[in-house]
């Protein structure tokens, strides 16, 4: 290492940020459980399945953020439907998790979450 200020070695190191969402969310037991399951999948099974997701963010990243933002029930259904859309003949491209859900998307009607995507949000 050199001691000169312009040698490039004294630059501060950037903090490592994982691939999952780091925004604020309520840390309820359901959300933490769901996010823990998704993270367990990412660390174990994801390496065996391979990088075959056709969306950005990947389905597991989408699930992690959906559960963190919208809770285990709604976020879990959003993740399930996203994984189903990712299969053969499904959608592809950039599909972020919505920041807020519409009023018509009630907790007792999870089938309405099927098409929560960029196309429907306008």
UniProtKB/TrEMBL annotation:
GO terms for cellular component: plasma membrane. Keywords: Cell membrane, Membrane. The keyword Membrane applies. It is found in: Cell membrane. It comes from the Bacteria. Signal peptide: none annotated. InterPro entries: Membr_insert_effic_factor_YidD (IPR002696). Its main location: membrane. It is a peripheral membrane protein. HAMAP family: UPF0161_YidD. Belongs to the UPF0161 family. Could be involved in insertion of integral membrane proteins into the membrane. This is Putative membrane protein insertion efficiency factor. It comes from Shinella zoogloeoides (Crabtreella saccharophila).
